[in-house]
Amino acid sequence: MFSTAARALASRSLPRAPSILPPSRSMLTVSRLSPSVAELTLDKAPANTLSLEMALAFSAAVSEIEADPSVTALLLRSSSTKIFSAGLDISEMSGPEPARLADFWRAIQGTYLSLYSSRLATVACIEGHAPAGGCLLSLMADYRIMTGGGPRIGLNETALGIAAPYWLKDMFVETVGRRNAELALLKGTLFTGEEALAVGLVDEVLPLEEVYPRAKEEVLKLARIPAKGRAETKRLLRGAAVDELLAGREADVAWFTEFVLEEGTQKGIKAYLDSLKKK
Ligand SMILES: CCCCCCCC/C=C/C=C/CC(=O)SCCNC(=O)CCNC(=O)[C@H](O)C(C)(C)COP(=O)(O)OP(=O)(O)OC[C@H]1O[C@@H](n2cnc3c(N)ncnc32)[C@H](O)[C@@H]1OP(=O)(O)O
């Protein structure tokens, strides 16, 4: 677990405006795989996109799971075997109301701060597609297991005419290495499971029917690693990145909102959203 001060700062910066709906749990389910292992299932049809409400619900669920000292590990999965998460809800960025857009980005930052800095051992069970923000969710976990063959994973922001924020880019670079990250980010590459394994973006690739059983096996194994040593090791590995975002959180919100509100970006976002709907 990261410093109390850092956590307090993180939660104080989350949206509190009365216009924001309270986190809805209908988009997520939390269950237990064992007394010490929780399972968090994304359950927002059709594509588990990260809207403002979904992002708030996600962080709240992670915080609630963490607050139970008997829980030492978390499995993250989707209720759909076709889509893990299609990433940010693009409609949040199309013709947005500026205050909501800023709250949306704070909530997206909050998903990162909650899971990447979690004291829990975390495994992502990626049975379906995980583009952009879907890849972000999985990168925040400690271990990733993905289906081979069909589904794609990666950061395709460049192909959409936008850029991944620095904290997401940094997590990607840390995971796949500088050169692999440059090649993938500049092209907006979406990898198959096998390609993702080759660059180190995921840790295992299996046929669909074996992904969830194996993810359960792994998370139950990780849950047995002494919790204190693991939490401190994670803090040593990730603390600087988390602290950097905490210190520059509002500057990052300003960067995001300015870029998204630009006329050219708006045209691109609208065209992309229309193309998704026409598919
Ligand atoms: C100087 C530079 C500054 C830069 C600052 C800008 C910073 C911006 C940073 C942002 C980072 C952004 C990261 C993101 O996450 S952006 C979102 C990227 N996501 C995608 O590109 C994925 C889009 N979706 C798909 O490719 C497919 O849906 C797929 C996941 C492959 C699944 O395909 P399929 O099974 O065929 O399902 P459908 O395409 O039919 O989708 C079902 C319905 O869901 C809607 N949908 C899908 N994805 C999204 C989305 N991301 N947002 C909103 N809605 C989405 C889709 O339209 C379908 O809806 P409907 O049933 O009504 O037709």
TrEMBL record:
Pfam families xrefs: ECH_1
CDD domains: crotonase-like (cd06558)
Signal peptide: none
Name this protein carries in UniProt: ClpP/crotonase-like domain-containing protein
Species annotation: Tetraparma gracilis
Database matches in InterPro entries: ClpP/crotonase-like_dom_sf, Enoyl-CoA_hyd/isom_CS, Enoyl-CoA_hydra/iso
Lineage per the UniProt record: Eukaryota, Sar, Stramenopiles, Ochrophyta, Bolidophyceae
Family statement: Belongs to the enoyl-CoA hydratase/isomerase family.
Origin: domain of life: Eukaryota
PROSITE patterns given in the database record: ENOYL_COA_HYDRATASE
